[in-house]
Structure formats: C-alpha cells, structure tokens
Amino acid sequence: MTGASSGIGYELARLFAQDGFDLVVAADTPLAEAKQAFESLGARVETLQTDLSTEEGVQSLYDLVSGRSVDALAANAGHGLGEGFLDQDFGDILHVINTNITGTTRLLHLVGRDMRTRGKGQILLTGSIAGLMPGAFAAVYNASKAYVDSFSFALRNELKDTGVSVTVLMPGPTDTEFFDRAGMEDTVVGQGKKMDPADVAKIGYHAMQRGEGDVVAGVMNKLQAATAAVTPQTALAEVHRRQAEPGGGKH
C-alpha cells in the first residue's frame, strides 16, 4: 500500500485493515499515527517512510514484502503540480513524473511478476479523471495520470488469463492535501466542492474486490468523464484552464 499517510491512500488502508489484511504501508511522510489507526482495527502493520520517486525507495519497499504472498497491491502514491509548465521548477516536474509514472511502473513490475507466478492477486491503481483531458496549468500532472489510466487497461488485458486483476480508480477533486501540496489553493478547482476521500476509497476498493477494470468516483465525475470522451481536446484544455489557472479562485 503506497501513499497511505493521508487522503485516499489512508482510507484505502483502513478498508484493507477492516477486512483482515495485514498491511505494509509506505509514504514519503511520517506514518506513526496512521500505523496506530490501522493497528486499532486489528491489522498487523509494517511501515516504511521512503521516497517512491526513486528506484532505491521502490526497491526498499519491495525488499520489505519480498518472500511474502502479496494478495493485493494498492498503488496510490502520487503528487500534483499546479501553475504553468514553464513557470514550474524542473526538479518538481521530475518528482511528479518519477513518483506518478516511473516509481509506480517499477513497483508494479516487481510485485506484478510475483502475483503472476502465484496465479493470484489484485492490483488497484489510483488514476484520475484528470488523465482524460489536457491539463492546462497542470500539464505534467494530467499527462502522468493519462499514463496511469492507459497503463492500467493495457496491463489488465495482458493479465486477463493469469488470475491477477487490475483496477484503476479515477477520482475527481477530492478533499485531501493534494491541492495544498500542488500549490493550487487559489484556483477554481482548489476552492470548489470535493468528494470525501473515504467515499472515494470505498468506491475503488469495492471495484477492486469485484475485479472491475475501472471506476470513476462520483456521479458528476462520471458525467465529466463521459463528456471528455466526445469533446475536442482543444476545448477540454480551455475548460481545464478555467478550473486550474493560478489566481482564478475567490480571493
């Protein structure tokens, strides 16, 4: 379980704990409070604070679970990044790419092979409806989620006869630390209505249990996803600009 210190990842870990799973949870922020919460639900919990944007961080997590039978992997770790692409620090850009894309891909390559060998396992990826549209003023983040969304469908197809299922959860705006960490508090979307992360986690968790390929969290987000499928990309980019342009929210 990655990205489990807060938000959707934390709520997903709670659901696993309530269902009797033992947990190995990782995040780039402290996990002591989260560990106590999960243990209070009866789970045995091991934690790892590490940077999953690095190969060393991913390997350290895999080393921690190596030799065990991993029944489910929730790859939730991710970072957002607001502002215009040319105004962003390139180090921040790389961190988003390496967390959302490279680290996630590396972890799935390691754990997915073990699951395929066993002929059993469930993988839950946290994508986003952001991956369905060009993200003006969040270009790198949206592109990274487009990768996750697409990758999940391809991997699901490759593993369809192996006993390993792949599900992608595609939330919309969710009430987490995401917008604060992405520097998007002054945007329309940052100040708008958001879903409860506990509700989003339940939708994804139950979709994984059922072996579904994908699920969009929330009625309005389902409508937005359907609209994105038939709307020209240039128009979608303009819509996203109005939502994500710095300073576009209420002052």
Describe this protein's structure.
The chain contains ten helices and six strands. The model has no long low-confidence stretch (mean pLDDT 93). It has helices spanning 7-18, 32-39, 55-65, 90-118, 139-158, 178-181, 188-191, 197-210, 219-228, 233-244, and strands at 23-27, 45-49, 72-75, 121-126, 164-170, 214-216. Helix 1 runs parallel beside helix 2, helix 3 packs parallel to helix 4 (90-118) and helix 4 runs parallel beside helix 5 (139-158). It has 251 residues and is an alpha/beta fold. Strand 1 (23-27), helix 2 (32-39) and strand 2 form a beta-alpha-beta unit.
Tell me the layout of helices and strands.
Blueprint: H1 7-18, E1 23-27, H2 32-39, E2 45-49, H3 55-65, E3 72-75, H4 90-118, E4 121-126, H5 139-158, E5 164-170, H6 178-181, H7 188-191, H8 197-210, E6 214-216, H9 219-228, H10 233-244
Parallel strand pairs: 1-2, 3-4, 4-5, 5-6
Helix pairs in contact: 1-2, 1-8, 3-4, 4-5
Q: Please provide the ordered H/E string of secondary-structure elements.
A: HEHEHEHEHEHHHEHH
**How many angstroms does the end-to-end distance come to?**
37 Å
Helix share bin: 40-55%
The number of helical elements comes to: 10
Envelope shape: globular
Proportion of residues in β-strands:
5-15%
Main sheet characteristics: 4 strands, parallel
Structural class: alpha/beta
